[in-house]
Design brief:
By secondary structure, this protein is an alpha+beta fold. Helix content is about 20%, strand content about 35%. The protein has 2 helices and 7 strands. The mean pLDDT is about 85.
Length: about 110
């Protein structure tokens, strides 16, 4: 008799503990598979220096110089920020020139 009571009590406790778990959030977090296997989208973009002095650009973490009247062609990942590292008559040092996106593919941006 005591074995049956112990068995029934443990089953009842298990059922009461399991009821809230039915409404709980799932334990696994799903990650999109394409995030692992997709390649980073690259965009071809050019920067032309139309100011009177050489301009230094900060592309991501890299510094690049564009000489006066020259064009710098780059292939950059979507989302990369291009900042002016030197001041020009129309730009303040540290200002954002562009944030690369797919609609800029093949574009030439003029820096004045």
């Amino acid at each position: 008799m005591t074995t049956r009571t112990l068995f029934v009590t443990s089953i009842a406790a298990l059922a009461l503990a399991a009821a809230p778990a039915v409404y709980a959030a799932p334990l696994s977090i799903t990650t999109p598979v394409h995030a692992f296997f997709s390649k980073e989208k690259m965009v071809a973009i050019s920067f032309r220096n139309d100011s009177g002095a050489p301009v230094e650009l900060k592309v991501g973490e890299n510094l690049m110089t564009v000489e006066t009247g020259k064009t710098l062609a780059l292939h950059l990942a979507v989302g990369t920020k291009v900042l002016a590292n030197t001041a020009t008559p129309n730009l303040v040092a540290g200002s954002v020139i562009a944030q690369v996106d797919t609609y800029l593919s093949g574009a030439t941006l003029s820096i004045k």
